[in-house]
Design goal:
The strands form three sheets. The chain has a five-stranded parallel β-sheet with strand order 2-3-6-1-7. Strands 4-5 form a two-stranded antiparallel sheet. Helix 5 crosses helix 7, helix 8 packs across helix 10 and helix 13 crosses helix 14. It folds into three domains: 162 residues, P-loop containing nucleotide triphosphate hydrolases (Rossmann fold, 3-Layer(aba) Sandwich), CATH 3.40.50.300; 92 residues, Helicase, Ruva Protein, domain 3, CATH 1.10.8.60; 68 residues, Orthogonal Bundle (Arc Repressor Mutant, subunit A), CATH 1.10.10. With 325 residues, it is α/β, with parallel strands linked by helices. The chain binds adenosine-5'-triphosphate and magnesium ion. The site of adenosine-5'-triphosphate has 15 residues, from helix 2, helix 8 and helix 10.
Length: 325
């Protein structure tokens, strides 16, 4: 993250167009905002347009605005996002999804800093810094003819790549602390500590949803955690299940200690976990609860058995079952 911010710092003082690439949830919008807020245009507006999933006509009028009478229903002039971003920064989010027909009009903005509202004759000056973001590889898109090469070069004068979280696991502890603090403040709770084992698990997971997924995971754990400590039992079952599935794969990066398997795993012989994975099985819940008791008592089996109101032998059996897998 620091390396990325250093790079971002290089682009700060200039108004050159910046393209931010990276998988979903890696913080592309966050970087775009940082670029705006720490740059010379910070006092100007920051305006974001999502270019994906909007019909082309709508996106065009959203971006460029229109004059009165431009089309049926255009009863008065409407300012577009470019108008709104004057003197500031325009974030073109998911630029890779922008229809080719609009790309030509955008090229004029990027190249000439000129544009016209729909139905307008006046040529307007676009005093905007353009920042684009995409989860696609725009160079590949341009090669395949799905993105204008000239526009690509205009937008990608300076390129930042936000790496997936699994490629920068060293960021995870700091992010966890950040999100625990955020969630606790939001819930009006005392900031809980994170058990070392939980931190290990959080660092071992692959996060297909990247930082956003980590943020959601922590948000859940903070709500669920009862005491001043976040334990394994407070992590979402879907997270634990995905983690054990990854651990079961031979090439997985994850290496949990054999004596302390993930509590999400059902005891041996209890059959497969619940079919669609959306609901924990009774065995999984029991395992989590046993684990929780062990953590609460600092691994003291006599105490844990008392807490669970079962015999010591029963607890040994449950732990042995878990350890057998
Ligand atoms: N380095 C970071 N520090 C703190 N929070 C972060 C960081 N990176 C991402 N986040 C948070 O993660 C969430 C997702 O980030 P963001 O929306 O910027 O991602 P994105 O790459 O634009 O995702 P998408 O492609 O899905 O739009 C946000 O809540 C953001 O605040
Ligand atoms: Mg985004």
């Amino acid at each position: 993250m620091r390396a990325l911010l250093r790079q971002l710092g290089l682009a700060l003082p200039s108004t050159v167009s910046v393209l931010i690439g990276g998988e979903s949830g890696t913080g592309k919008e966050l970087l775009a905002r940082a670029l705006h807020e720490h740059g010379p245009r910070a006092k100007g507006p920051f305006v974001a347009v999502n270019c994906s999933g909007i019909p082309v006509d709508l996106l065009e009028s959203e971006l460029f605005g229109y004059e009165r009478g431009a089309f049926t229903g255009a009863t008065q002039r409407k300012h577009g996002r470019i108008d709104q971003a004057q003197g500031g920064t325009l974030l073109l989010d998911e630029i890779g999804d922008m229809p080719l027909s609009l790309q030509a009009k955008l090229l004029r903005v990027a190249q000439e800093s000129e544009y016209q509202r729909l139905g307008g004759t006046e040529t307007l000056r676009a005093d905007v810094r353009i920042v684009s973001a995409t989860h696609r590889d725009l160079a590949v898109e341009a090669e395949a003819g799905r993105f204008r090469t000239d526009l690509y070069f205009r937008l990608a004068r300076f390129v930042l790549h936000s790496p997936p979280l699994r490629e920068r696991r060293e960021d995870i502890p700091a992010l966890v602390q950040h999100f625990v603090g955020l969630a606790a403040r939001k819930e009006g709770r005392v900031v809980p500590a994170v058990a070392p084992r939980v931190m290990e698990a959080l660092q071992a997971y692959d996060y297909p949803g990247n930082v956003r997924e980590l943020e959601n995971t922590i948000g859940y754990a903070v709500i669920v955690a009862r005491g001043a400590l976040i334990t394994m039992a407070d992590l979402p079952v879907t997270f634990l299940r995905a983690l054990s599935a990854a651990a079961a794969r031979p090439a997985a990066l994850v290496a949990p200690e054999p004596a302390a398997p993930s509590p999400a795993r059902p005891p041996a012989g209890s059959g497969a976990p619940s079919g669609d994975g959306s609901f924990p099985t009774l065995a999984e819940v029991e395992q989590q609860h046993v684990q929780r008791a062990m953590e609460r008592t600092g691994g003291n089996k006599v105490e844990a058995a008392r807490l669970l109101d079962i015999s010591r032998m029963a607890l040994y059996r449950k732990l042995a079952l878990a350890g057998a897998r």
